[in-house]
Every structure is written in structure tokens, then in C-alpha cells.
Amino acid sequence: MQARVAPSQMVGDLYSSGMDTASIDKVGVAAIQSELDKINGITDTKSLLNEIARENINGYNPLFTLYVGPDDKEVSKNICNLFQGGLGLPDRDYYFKNDPRETEIRAQYVVHIAKMLKLSGESETDATKNATLIMQIETALAKASMDRVSMRDPYKIYNKFSVAALNAITPTIEWKEFLEKIHIKNEDTLLVAQPDFFASMSKMLSSTPIADWKIYLKWHLLSGMAAYLSKNFDTESFHFYGKIMRGQQEQKPRWKRVLSVVDGAVGEQLGKMYTDKYFTKEAKARMMELVNNLETAFEARINKLDWMSDSTKVKALDKLHSFIKKIGYPDTWRDYTGLEITRNSYVQNVLASNVFDYNYNIGKLGKPVDRTEWGMTPPTVNAYYNPAFNEIVFPAGILQYPFFDLSVDDAAIYGGIGAVIGHEMTHGFDDQGCQYAADGNLKNWWSSEDKSRFDAKTNGVKLQYDAYTILDNKHVNGALTLGENIADLGGVTIAYDAFKMTKQGKGTEKIDGFTPDQRFFLSWAQVWRQNIRDEEAATRLVTDPHSPGIHRCNGPLSNFAPFYAAYNVKEGNKMYKPEAERAKVW
């Protein structure tokens, strides 16, 4: 049995292997030659499916993703989930929109594929022909894919199939056999998020020539592994995905990119090192105090709602008080015993980590759901709400400026991290989260009248954000961003209520010439300051469930009376909205 490796050793070895560019460049594409050979060895549909199964274990997921997680309607049990995939562009809409930007991106994508294939050794003629072929396959997959707005409806992506029933709609794949190939036995039920996609994919597996699939799999292997290969692959991948898609003028320093890989592969090893050095007991205690104060403020707000009946309020409060609160880092650190990391090969380390994570994930089958597990690593600058666990989670990484600073006044803290806490709490009651009950199960807990009133209020939020534009009249998608917009609106209002319970919030003393309320809203605004390239902003309009930063900042405040009072906002000012048009949900 492998001896337990110190976190610093595993982190250091993986980081060093990624920083050893001389060795990486010397090996070149040969680093994945054994993987390419396996793809080249495909001869028929059966060996194609065997290779797809093998690649799923290795983390490539060339056509779809399989993962194990709680059954949304029975969250105490784990179940296999199938989710659509197979695209090289960020969203299905990129394959069909005829706007000048999307049209140009499609053309540049084909050029990029050809360049990558040529780097792998193909002739220019073959690479160009094969790039067009790959685009045709991906376009067919995109046509079968569910769009992002539809996928926000948890009922639309909750489709339970027996293995026999899934076989019936995907006759090319015998799922019992496929599952055994990926080390899953005795599972007779799966959740299929997009059945139409899998039905179409099955037809394509039987109708598309094997030679074409080999080219497609080769491309996705090259693309997925480009960041771990020699500089020529890494640079070409950045040219398309960084420069063309996102407008980046230069790559992040390599040390940052490698550290991100370390965080993804052994994030709790890195997290242990990070929190030991940078996260204090005082910070955790202060955060728990803030979370509890926000919960009190949210309870008061629910009790005062004029559109919700008393019976539904009882259930809403039950859900609020059932939140699991996770702050900083897990109580029990993940055990990485069995994962072998060396300093010799970056690619092999990445593959070993992928396989380790895959086995860890499917190892959950047949076991109770572990509600202590974290979905983000401790150094992550982010936070989340998980409806299946009914939990709010704040990694140590976000507990720094501009969100959190123990040395600043309450106004700055509540306007920053306080609003983040309120945001994640409100996700439990946004248009998606509200469909999950206090126990985490997907089930209705609303009266029909209350739900109708809620839907009318959230539709007002949708319409407000639909009207916002960036980049010469490109509109925000109010349906795609609805959950985050509701959470932003709830976050700032609940945080403000909690702030008004503090000594500073009740007072009028100015700091640096600003009142307590003004400092609260300034802190909120500081969180949303950003520099973003036009190309990245345009990509996020299609792919990101969050609105652009300027609208995340100003949108909620334009609905919030205390902001008007704090800055004497009057009719004629840009952020003024008539009282009757201001969105109010929670």
C-alpha cells in the first residue's frame, strides 16, 4: 500500500512537473502518443464504445459526462447522472447564430482545429479536410443539445430511466455493458438530463463512419490536453480560446495556470496548506456571526412579506433554518492515498488525477450521500448554494478584500461579504432553488396562489434585465440570468437589513466623509469593479448565468429605496426607476 504523502510533497511534485517546460517541450505530442494509439486502434462500433468508456474514466468525456450525485427527488441516495457534451465551442448557440461575431468564431474555430491537427503531424490537406468534418459532427451534436435556459428548469433535466428503457432510446449503446466498462455494476437506474441528446447521439454513433469518429476523438484529446503539452499546442489553444474567444492579449503567467491545475487535481491538499497559513479562527468566528445575522434578517423579511401566505411562510422559514453552513474548509480533509504524483510527467500526473477523481466519484454508489463533502476547494474565491444539501458554502479564498477584511467597519463588511452571504441564501429561494424543499428534495412546498405571485414578481426581474445592454446594444438574457439576478437583489437587501441591526448601521457617524449607508453601498460597488475585454463580455452573455458586472451592481440598487435615500437619487438620475417599476421579491 502506498504510504500517505504529505500535502506539500504532492502539491510540490505536481506543480514542479507543470513548471518543467524544458521537459514538456522536449517530449511534445509524444506525451499522449499512447492515448492517440488507442484511438487509432478503433475498428468498429464496439471498439469505439470501449474507447469512449476508457476516455470517460480518464476524464476526457468526449461525448457526454457521467457522474455520481444525489438523486434530486431522493437526495439521501446517490445515482448515476448522464449529461450532454461533445462540443468544442462554449455553447450550442455558437453553431447556429448568424451574428457577425458567431459567424467569424465558427470560421476561426475550423482554422484552429486544422492548426492543431497539423501540429500533431497531419498534412495540411488532411488537417483542413478533417477540421471541416469535426465541425459537422459537433454541429449535429449541438443541434441535439438542450439550451441553457431550458436546463435551468430542474424538472426538465430530471428524467429517470431504467437501463432497459435507456437502451430502447439509444439502441447503439448497451448500457449494462457500457457501465461495466467504466467500473459500474449492479446499477439498474440512471438520471438522464437530456434524453433527446442521447437518442440523437446513439443514431450518430451508428450512422457516422468509424473513421470520422476516430478523427473527432483525436481532436478532442488534443484540445483537452493542449494546456499540458508542448508550447506549440498550448500557444495555439490560447490563440483561439484565449485571444479570439475571450480577447486576452497574453496568457496568464504559467505559474498561475499550473497552480490552477494543482487546485483542480489536489485542491484539498493545497487547501490545507493555504488555510493553515492564511485562514484564522477569528475569521471563521466572524463569518459565522455574519451568517447568523443574515439569517435573522432574512427571517424578518420573510415574516413581513405581503404576498406570501402564513402556511407557506412556515415552510420557507423551515428551509431557511435548515441551511447547512460551511465556512473556510471541510471538517475532514479528503484522503488522496492511492494517487501517485511524480515530478517526471505533467501529462501523466493529470491523467492519474483524472482517474483518481473518477474512481472517487463512482465510489459513492451504494453509499449514503455525504453531506460533509465540499464542491469547491478552500482557496477558491467564490461561494455557492447547493439545493440538494440545502447548504451555503464560503471557502476561505473569498474571505479577503474586497469581500472581507476583519480590520474594516461593519458597513464595508456587510456591503461586501454580507451581500455574498445574502446572495447564497437567496439562491435557496430563487426560481430554481425555490423548487427544492428544506430536506433538499425536488418537490413543491408552495401553495399555488403563492407560487403564482412569486412567478409574477420574478418575471418582473427577468424583464428588467432583458432590457439591459452592453457592447453596442447586445442584450442581457434575463431568463438565463434570472436566478443570479434574484440572488443579487436578495443579497444586497438582506445584507442591508442585517447591517441596520449593528451599532454603526443604527448611527449616523461619517467615515472619510461618507455616512454608514453610503459606505455600505460603496462596498457593494467595489465588489463589482472589473476590467473585461469586449470578447469575453460577449462570450459571457451567451454562457454565463450571471449578468455583466455593471448590471449586477446597479440593477439591484435601482430597485432599493435605501439606496435612493443614501445618495438622494431623484427622477432624472440614470439609476432612478419609478416606485411602481421597482422589482421586489424577497
C-alpha-based Rg, rounded: 25 Å
* Spatial order of the strands forming the largest sheet: 1-2-4-3
Count of DSSP helices?
Answer: 23
Which CATH class of the largest domain is shown? Mainly Alpha
Beginning-to-end CA distance, first to last residue: 54 Å
**CATH architectural name of the largest domain:** Orthogonal Bundle
Global morphology: globular
- Averaged pLDDT: 96
Strand content: 5-15%
Could you name the CATH topology of the largest domain?
A: Neutral endopeptidase, domain 2
CATH superfamily of the largest domain: Neutral endopeptidase , domain2
Count of beta strands: 9
* Oligomer class: single chain
Question: How many domains is the backbone divided into?
Answer: 2
Going by helix content, strand content and strand pairing, the class is alpha/beta
Question: Could you explain the architecture of this structure?
Answer:
By secondary structure, the chain is of the alpha/beta class. It has helices at 7-19, 21-27, 33-40, 45-57, 100-119, 124-144, 163-169, 175-181, 195-207, 210-225, 231-246, 254-278, 281-304, 310-321, 346-362, 410-427, 448-466, 482-499, 503-506, 516-527, 534-543, 549-557, 561-567; strands at 64-71, 74-84, 160-162, 189-192, 324-328, 384-386, 391-395, 469-470, 474-475. The chain has two domains: 7-265, Neutral endopeptidase , domain2 (Neutral endopeptidase, domain 2); 280-328 and 381-581, Collagenase (Catalytic Domain), CATH 3.40.390. The protein contains 23 helices and nine strands. A four-stranded mixed beta sheet has the order 1-2-4-3. A three-stranded mixed beta sheet has the order 5-7-6, covered by helices on one side. Strand 6 (384-386) and strand 7 (391-395) form a beta hairpin. The N and C termini lie far apart (54 Å).
